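Appendix B. One record, verbatim.
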Amino acid sequence: MSDIKFGTDGWRARIAEDYTFANVRRCTEGYARYMESLGNSNLYTGCVIGYDKRFQSEDFAAAAAEVLAAHGIKVWLTNGATPTPVIAYAVPAHKALGAINITASHNPPYDNGFKVRGDTGGAIDPDGLKAIESFIPDDANVKTLSFDKAVSSGLIETFDPAPEYLANLKKLIDVEPIRKAGLKIVYDPMWGNGAGWLTRILGGDRTQIVELHNTRNPVFPEMLRPEPIPPNVNVGLARIVETGANCGCITDGDADRCGFGDENGKFVDQLRAFALIALYLLEVRGQRGPIVKTLSTTSMLDKLGKLYDVPVYETGVGFKYIAPKMVEVDAMIGGEESGGYAFRGNVPERDGILANLCLLDFMVKTGKTPSQLIEMLFSKVGAHYYDRIDTRCTPAERDRVRATLVSSQPTTVAGLAVTYKNSTDGFKFGLEDGGWLLIRLSGTEPIVRVYTETTHGDLVEPILQAGLRIAGL
């Protein structure tokens, strides 16, 4: 029996090594006991369970459903692999206590995962996650009820979560102008749950959707993992040029993260995408309200906040921090460096489908290409440049890196003066140009991440290399 801990977004582990049916049942037992500790009410009863297209995800989901059913908890089980934002929206739609999502998101193909959500459909806060961990039994002695018996007794009900999600989507964005715009859009769902969704939403009129990687293949050919960043997106970006498309839309394996490519097949990084979507909401849609961002994402949002007189709140990395803050302040948008963005009027959960639709609507409403939209953004906040290096490491190496960073006090990084050090989540060093360097131990994988954002395009690589040296890597 492995020690199950929830990281940045749930528990993830290697299939057949730690990610076994026994451990999935243990994890579900902990979640069931946590739900029971909250107390049921007439409004919030039952739990939604969904899953992705990874190896045996549907079987792990069924095993989780058997445990909840044994506790007398009604299970709404999705009728197929379903985007995470659609699973999340089903929670309030069915007045459920929360959700279990069997997915490892963007991890390599040998992993699977176990995400949990609360009654808003958003991530459970860190205290709640610690409570769930405390309820997970140390052995495989958990309650179970056979799937067939649970179905016949009405404790497990298979359902289609799409109609309610799509109905709410129509309230958030008018897709008709996009459907009629005559765009050619390359869509890469990265072998994941987003396959067919943009075509379903935007098809049937003048706009054409060219999909690739849209079948089930859990080894994820032509990419290292279904994470919407280069080099994983390179095949899709090349298809933009090959087909003469206007842009490329990308969603990760469970479709909660957004990637985007411009008309020249160049990747629009996650920080620029976040700032573009915020600018779209502020400038085109005329919305106002707080912006919530993690400390690993763009300072362009702070500049937009000042320009449009809206508050900007910064949190630790992960939606377990973002979602509660969004609910607290009624945020207009919340997001993180990974490409996950959530919106007011929806559940406080990342939505890669809606994020891509916002970027498309920005193009249609302004008549601008993606590269012209970036120029528009930079005309307001100045040019910003970003990159990240991920380095795999052993547990011993992680401990050494952490100890090194605790004592590190650099005064300059790549010739730029260090203006502050923030150790809220990782180790962030502010730079004199308003940029930053962040060195952080991943909460989902055995990886040390080194990130930077700077106004000096020629200093991106020197800052990253300086970060590696500071970490002793």
